[in-house]
Every structure is written in structure tokens, then in C-alpha cells.
Amino acid sequence: MATLDPIADALPSATAAGRARATALAAYAAPQPLTEWVEYQSRGRLLIIGPADISWAMAKTLAAELDCVVLATRRPAETPESAPPAPTAYGTVAKLGGHLGAFALTLQGEAGATADSEAVFGPQHAAHDLVLDLQAAPAIKSEVAPPGYFHAYDHVDREQALPQLVDLVGEFEKPRYLDYDPDICAHGERGLEGCRKCLEVCAADAPFSIGERIEIDFNLCQGCGSCTAVCPTGALTYTVPPVSDQLDGLRRLLSAYRTAGGNAPVLAFHGEDYDAEVLQQLPEHILPLAVESVGSLGLEAWLTLLAYGAHQIRLLTPPTTAPTLLDTSRGEIELLQLVLTALGDAHATARVQLLLTAEEALQAATPPALVSEYATFAALGDKREILRMALAHLQQQAPAAAARQPLPKRAPFGAIAVSDACTLCMACVSVCPTAAVQGGGDEPKLWFQEERCVQCGMCATACPEDAITLDPRLDFAAQLQPERRLLHEERMQLCLDCGKQFATRKMIERMKEKLSNHWMFQTPEAKQILLLCDDCRIQRAFDDNGGINPHRD
């Protein structure tokens, strides 16, 4: 969550901007998180994995504080003169997963057989509270390790891990960082898979698919927020604090800064443990703000802050941040740059910057303001609504906005195109998670609302005729003046017997093509069956002497 930095009182204020910054930060009330808690309990049962010599040395050091067992991946160089300092099994990791207080191990013994921890170490070690992994390649591959797991291959990492392991005994809790609304999730529908963005960007492997929806393992979630930044519908939202509350507080902060005589405000977001010395050296028009996670901020937040009058947004992130998280932020920034380019911003590439070093943080140049009139709207509503309000204000201020901006594949905005192969079977309508594609009711029509489309691709996947293609783009008129437009329509087929409309003519033609070589449909009388509604088809087939004989001669 955005908080007042503990170093705020120590920030220099030699200029008018610095004094305005001090006034604004002093008046800033950080939004409160909507926090539920995830609880852990650790009794100090430690699993050490690695070569016997090193593992035993670690076990001996920790024996007084923790209840250790060892999975020795290599036998000792020399036969020990005494018993090992901890129960030891020899083999390799077949499977390891879990989190603080609940790690589960399946090991493979030297003879090749597999067994779980309880079978090898006894019922008191059926689960492990902590894991110290001394192998060159970690047993748990996620970029952000679960709480309680320490990969310490070299001497420095081991020295850092030892005191942390000892401290992780007892009861602990952390925020439940996310909310999830499955009703607007675009992950899947009717057995088809659509959006996978949250699964792809989480460095902790916390989200997982359960078919048409996802679930979050909140014990693994570390609150990086990348999943909420890329979620196209807002099904995943950050709660520490909610983005709407955060934006509302920052709107007031920017207003207070300007009222106090400040100009060219730049918002610099950083983690709680960011280098205080670097923050104190920032130019005085830059307002540093600590957040739970820099990665939780995305396109709608950045556009809104620019509409509120921020000249620039700086994301101060250590270079040690997980690569997946950095790539996610870079991808969102590239999308923002395309949007700003369409708005005619000559400084699109400088508006939001991901800065990984102190030199970058201190040397980045500040562009002029994007807007001349500052937006005052409250950032209420869902993700798409907030984004549309920001876009509307920025377009009104834009010197020469383009009507439409092409976007890269998988961008969360766009249209679809429907070819003449469409039979209006309505498969696309049945799977669209946002109701962007709509049927015509009693009319043979297919309608589309572009502002609802998130380019999940399920409509194209569901189409049996391959008639749908995606067109990722940002059409300002479609987003800001939403309206339903006609995609496709067909004439209806009338039943030859009762005259009822029962299918589109295109659908009947396609059926004729597919059955053209079928032995049951080779006579004119048999082909007429296809031109009957269900009721009349049954009547003709089984009651009329001219109907189909279902048996071969």
C-alpha cells in the first residue's frame, strides 16, 4: 500500500518544490488496506537438502534451535566417526512443495524407490516447517520462493539464511493480497481456455487453473501484484490497498503539492526496503512513495495519475527483482507507450520508467506535463471503468489524438472480425466471458461491443467454421462512446412443411456440404429432409411413405 515514507522528514526542502513536497507528504493520509490474513504455524521442523558433509555441518549449527532432518544427496567424503547430528536419508528430491509450516517431500532413494517423509523420518516429520536447500539447482523452481524455503548454495547465502530460519518458529501472518471475482474471469468457458495472463506472470506460482476458472494459493502469494496489473477484466484486484483508494489518495496528494507551490510533480514508487540514501538525493520535485509492490500498478493507474497531473511516474525497483516481474512491468509500460503515442504525446517513452539502479533513479529526466487541465474524477468503478475515465480526459487534452492505435497480440483491447463463413451458430456468444459478442435474439444477427472485448480468444477457438479473427487495437471512439455494432447477419431458412424459421440458410448450406457424400442423402427426397424443422423432419422421416428408409438394402 502507499504509505508516507519514514524518511519523509529527512527529505531536503531547499527549493519551493521541496517545501511543497514536505507539506503535501505531511498531509498525505495513506489509504488503508482491505486486509484479510493468511496464517502460518511453524514448530521448527527443518529439512536440510544437500551433500552430507555440508548438510550435517548446518544441522549441527542449528540443532539447538531447530528439529533437523537431512536428505543427503551425496554421501560423506569419509566415513564419520560418530552418528550424524540429525536423522539422515540418502537420495534425491523426487518432489517438494508447500510453504512455511507445511512442506511435503517425496524422495527417491539410492536404490530408486520413492517414499514420503513420514515413511523415512517418522510421523513427527510427515511435514516440514522449513527447508534449507544446499543444492546447486533449487528443488523449488519458482522465482519467488515460498515462505520458509531457503536456497543457499554458497557460503554467503548460508550465513544469511541461518538467523532467518531460527526466527521462523511460532505463529505468523501476512496479508491476503488479492480478491478474485470468478464471474468476470476470462480464463475459460464451456471447456475452452482463454486468458492465462495471471498464470504466466506470477513469479511465485500462486495462481493455478481449475478448468474454467482459477484459484490462488494464498500461502504462496507474496503480493507482487503482477497478476492484478495484467488481468484484463479486473477479476483479480489488489487489496493492499485497493487501487481506487490508492488513486484517490494520490489525487489529493498531487493537488496539495500544487497548492503549496510545487510544480512538475513526479511520483516515485518504491518498496519499503528501498535505499533511503537514494531517496534523499532525489530532486525535490519528486515525491517518493512506499508501496507494498511496485508491480501492482498497471495501465489504468498510470493513465489516471497522468490525468491527475503527474508529469512522470518512476518505478524504483532493485535489479534483484524476479525477472518475470520485471518483464511484466516492461510489457505494461510498452502498452502504455503505444496508448500515449496515439494520444500524440511526444514524451511517451518517458512517462513511466522502470529504474533498476541508483544512477538511473537519480539521473532520469523529467518530461513536461501531459495535460494542461488536471482531472478531478474519483477513480470509482472497476478496472475498465477507471481506465475509460482516464482515457476520456487525456483524449480531450490531447493535441492530436489518433482515432485508432494498433496493439500487439494479446493486448487487452480490440475488435473481432467475422468472415462470410459464419453460420450464426452462436458458439462465440455462448463462451464470451464479457458479453462483448451478443446474439440477435429472434433475429439472425451477431452484435459486438468493442469496449467489453478483452481479446481472450475464446470466441475464435469456439467457432467451428474458423470464421473469427482477433484485431488487437485501441479504438478511442469504441472505448469512449460505447455502442453495439452489427458483425454479421444471415437470412433464415423456412421449413418446407410448416413455414417456421428454424436455422440460417448458411447453416443449412454447410450441412448439405458436409452430408453430400453420405449414403442416406443421395436422393432429392432425402435431401429435402434437411429443409424441415425438427418436428416436421421426424414426421416426414417416420410417418410419410416418401421418408428416409434408415436401413440399407
Describe, in plain words, how this protein is organized in 3D:
- The chain is α/β, with parallel strands linked by helices.
- The protein folds into five domains: 8-32 and 251-342 and 357-393, no CATH class; 39-173, FAD/NAD(P)-binding domain, CATH 3.50.50.60; 176-238, 2-Layer Sandwich (Alpha-Beta Plaits), CATH 3.30.70; 406-489, Alpha-Beta Plaits, CATH 3.30.70; 493-543, no CATH class.
- It is 30% helix and 22% strand.
- It has 18 helices and 27 strands.
- A seven-stranded mixed β-sheet has the order 6-5-4-3-2-7-8.
- The mean pLDDT is 92.
Keyword list:
single chain, alpha/beta, FAD/NAD(P)-binding domain, Alpha-Beta Plaits, 4-stranded parallel sheet, 18 helices, flat
Overall tally of domains:
5
Classify the beta-strand content into a percent band. Answer: 15-25%
> What structural category characterises the helix and strand content?
alpha/beta
How many β-strand stretches?
A: 27
Q: DSSP helix count?
A: 18
pLDDT averaged residue by residue = 92
Low-confidence stretches: none
Biggest sheet details? 7 strands, mixed
- What overall form do the CA principal axes indicate? flat
Radius of gyration: 31 Å
Terminal Cα span: 78 Å
Helical content class: 25-40%
Q: Report strand order across the widest sheet.
A: 6-5-4-3-2-7-8
